[in-house]
Write a structure and sequence with these properties.
It is built from twelve helices and 17 strands. It is α/β, with parallel strands linked by helices and 402 residues long. It folds into two domains: 215 residues, FAD/NAD(P)-binding domain (3-Layer(bba) Sandwich), CATH 3.50.50; 83 residues, D-Amino Acid Oxidase, subunit A, domain 2 (D-Amino Acid Oxidase, Chain A, domain 2), CATH 3.30.9. A hairpin with a 2-residue loop joins strand 13 and strand 14. The two termini are 30 Å apart. The model has no long low-confidence stretch (mean pLDDT 96). Bound molecules: flavin-adenine dinucleotide. Flavin-adenine dinucleotide binds next to helix 1, strand 8, strand 11, strand 15 and helix 7.
């Protein structure tokens, strides 16, 4: 049996951020990763300014191999069915276009933690003063013992299932898939991430340039047909934006737990098991997840250090500390904050004001029609409740978290 202070499940950005805090504080930390490192991660790689600052401040300057072409991104462009398009630059200039396979591996190495790759977390038992973890490597079971376990294992988290077996049935699941095309002609500006607020295209529709190809991505409720959805978007891009692409050369997709951050229903774990990153439900608007994932991971690491020093239950300390990241993330979905604050890292209100009165009206109408696509999830009242609670308090109530 391998004994350490902390076992982290998942060698991604949240795992790296948690590990950095733990190793810096002198705690023995082992990271389990089911894939071989450096591992592939499906992601557009568009980093927000806050995510960029976190990487620089905690891990140092990014190596060149951690970037795709184009190496940077200026911001996002929103497209609407009325054919109005608005580009918004990130505050503070361009940010790096991350190649997740190498950026995540670099961050993990910079954290200084011991990494066991090709090692899958299988289950755990919280014994009160320690946690026993079972993992599997090349068909063999391996046992780990730690004071605390951090689940940084992404949207389909097995660590969550081991503490809340029914959780996956409690939330709606989405599928996001992307196909890579050689470009014949593409007038979409390669310096921007392009997003369509179009209910006929799907719940989440995007396109951007990468390494000489164009990515066309679609997100929808699980169970729909990826090929048909994708073809529909390619046809739309050709008709409306004159984008001409060759047949795709490769494709990929995964399940997504989109929703918890909109309605303040995060999962932070139980007893000596903390959940962090996207597994907790952290996801910013337009699917930007890296900044909140990094910050939540760091808070999980800090909570373990703080709980040890003050001899307090780690779950209590983590929930107190994570409230700041909940506030930042859920503010991005709060209609009052969107209208009267500036919760995002690009200036939507300013871009809207640059449009004519007629165009502004069209954009607001199109956004409303797009939001109606999500009606079936019954999030409207919960978002309104969270917004009202935020008015009355400095944050969002922790009573809704698991
Ligand atoms: C198509 C797509 C595009 C995206 N584009 C962007 C973008 O442009 N910008 C942005 O900021 N965010 C983007 N995101 C979101 C972003 O990728 C996530 O928010 C972020 O990667 C979450 O990090 P994480 O550390 O929480 O988990 P993940 O990155 O999901 O990593 C979890 C890790 O845990 C490992 N793991 C899982 N199960 C086990 C197990 N049982 N045992 C051991 N290891 C395990 C996995 O192999 C993985 O390495 C995108 C997501 C998708 C799907």
């Amino acid at each position: 049996m391998r004994t350490s202070d902390v076992v982290i499940v998942g060698a991604s950005l949240s795992g790296a951020a948690a590990a950095k805090r733990l190793v810096d504080a002198g705690l023995e930390t082992v990271i389990l990763e089911r894939q071989e490192l450096p591992r592939h991660k499906i992601c557009s790689g568009i980093l927000s300014p806050r995510g960029h600052r976190f990487l620089l401040e905690n891990f140092g300057p990014l190596p060149r191999e951690a970037l795709h072409e184009p190496t940077s991104c200026k911001g996002v462009t929103f497209h609407f069915p009325s054919m109005v398009s608005m580009s918004m630059d990130f505050f503070g200039g361009t940010t790096p276009h991350l190649h997740r396979k190498f950026s995540d591996h670099w961050a993990i190495k910079q954290s200084g933690a011991e990494v066991h790759d090709r090692t899958s977390f299988v289950g755990l038992e919280d014994k009160g003063d320690h946690v026993l973890v079972t993992a599997r490597k090349q068909g063999q079971d391996i046992l780990y013992k730690a004071r605390t376990v951090i689940g940084a294992d992404g949207p389909s988290s097995l660590v969550i299932r081991s503490v809340y077996p029914d959780y996956p049935k409690q939330i709606p699941w989405f599928f996001v898939g992307q196909k890579f095309h050689d470009i014949v002609d593409c007038p979409l500006d390669p310096q921007y991430f392009h997003f369509w607020f179009h209910p006929d295209l799907g719940h989440y529709t995007w396109s951007h340039a990468r390494d000489g190809q164009q990515i066309v991505g679609v997100g929808f409720k699980r169970g729909d047909n990826f090929d048909a959805r994708h073809k529909n978007v390619v046809r739309y891009l050709a008709e409306k934006h004159h984008v001409r692409l060759s047949e795709h050369t490769s494709h990929e997709g995964c399940a997504e737990n989109f929703g918890p951050s909109l309605i303040n229903r995060y999962v932070f774990g139980k007893g000596n098991v903390l959940i962090t990153g996207q597994a907790s439900g952290f996801l910013n608007m337009i699917g930007e997840g890296m900044s909140c994932t990094l910050h939540s991971g760091a808070l999980a690491g800090e909570a373990v250090v703080e709980a040890g020093r003050r001899a307090r239950p780690v779950q209590e300390v983590y929930r107190r500390m994570i409230a700041s990241e909940v506030r930042r993330t859920t503010d991005q979905w709060n209609p009052l904050k969107i209208a009267f604050g500036r919760p995002h890292e690009a200036d939507f209100p300013a871009a809207l004001m640059k449009l004519s009165w007629r165009e502004r009206g069209l954009v607001l109408r199109d956004i409303w029609r797009f939001i109606l696509l999500y009606k079936e999830f019954k999030w409207g009242r919960q978002i309104a409740l969270a917004a009202a609670q935020r008015l009355a308090a400095a944050g969002y109530p922790g009573g809704r978290w698991l």
